[in-house]
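Example record

The entry below shows one chain as it appears in the dataset: sequence first, then structure tokens.
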Amino acid sequence: MSQSSAPLPAADGGGYDAHAVQTKWQQRWEAADPFRAGGPEDTRPRKYVLAMFPYPSGDLHMGHAENYLYSDIVARFWRHRGYNVLNPIGWDSFGLPAENAAIKRGADPREWTYANIEQQKAGFRQYGVSFDWNRVLHTSDPDYYRWNQWLFQKLYERGLAYRKASPVNWCPNDQTVLANEQVVDGHCERCGHEVVKKKLTQWYFKITDYADRLLDDLNQLEGFWPSKVLRMQRNWIGRSVGADIDFEIEGRAEKVTVFSTRPDTLHGATFMVVAPDSDLAAELAAGSTAEVRMRFQDYLERVQRETDIERQSTDRPKTGVFLDRFAINPVNGERLPIWAADYVLADYGHGAVMAVPAHDQRDLDFARAFDLPVKVVVDTTAPITGAIPVIELDENGDPIDPTLDDPSLDDLDPARTGLALTGEGRLINSGSLNGLSKRHAIARIVEELTAAGTGRAAKSYRLRDWLISRQRFWGTPIPMIHTEDGGIVPVPEDQLPLTLPDARGIDLTPKGSSP
């Protein structure tokens, strides 16, 4: 063994000195720069390896070592196969964790963040991960976020970035918007204060314009991606096909549109439910009596302390407030009482649903809780045989209206059993739809609604447009100018990047709007 490759003695003259060996080879690696990707003159085939950027809100931990070990293995594998590998490193250095850490310590987020980056960079070098240290990115560098701003403006030009008022998770103590993941058991993850819903005007990206493409293109990944991942993606997008149905509201000039995946059950609607935190609910309550307005306001304050997950839970008691207003069923003219109830969300569909308690379990639970009518319009005991429905006609050639006299169907009465009839069957108590199967009845009712101008075929998605704005300092400034006349215009492209001001001397404690 040569002298240069022999183990170095420990500082105390004893055995192996790991620190000295590590320092020696780190110095040699830094001088040799062995992980630098070759330039245009490099004729080797190319590979690009990119791991997610770490957050610089603290020092590295074992989770970092584990995560970047995997990408390091991939990069080294391809280098040994003779490839020119580009393996850059960067820091996702904007955001709430870094800002909160800086505020807690009374520091400037910029100084705190970049000091942590240097500390993490030294940690990466210590264990020899094969990043190309000539290609380092910080998302909080103006040269980097200039392109975030440029991209934002391109999306805005194409109508894909827009502002709207919508309810958000709000921490009254920290005075800031919280993501769903930052709300734990109804409380702020950071300070423990109870979280409420608050309506704020926010910037959004219109990702729902791509919902169909996102969903349909998953078919190309069958056999390549794990089936459970594809299933999660499809559930996340959550496409529902049905109809938009327009309901008149007594005392209101404008109709209310309701989305339903089961427009065939429209004859079975016995009431309407609106989201209590929707503009519609506030408007309807405002047009009612003082007593209703007071009960509605008390209920709304309760709902604003609930999370969407809690509201969608199927095992909690149904609650609601009657608004003393009525909708008109477009197919039979029946008056439907309108309730505000927390199991309907303001941002699903149009924030209102037609309630068909005989054939929807949540509607049935609500109807039974408040003693509302239950009307069966699908005979689930009737067999579905073949694609062409068999309809019995009377002597005049009109469809015979089946009744509920069949004991087997009577035994299944949801009002008594508490179980909604959600299975297949044939339509009853539904006029021209009587005798039709679900599929044929949906097609028929959509045709009739379209012809009458009271509805149309439609889709709805679980996917929501992406909320991107915030009420905090440490993030990419949105490159839009708010003019004195209330307009919004982009910052001229040649003036990008629009940079953050110097944070020294600014109180960054959250107060409800960006400092």
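Notes for this example: The radius of gyration is 31 Å. The first helix runs from residue 18 to 32.
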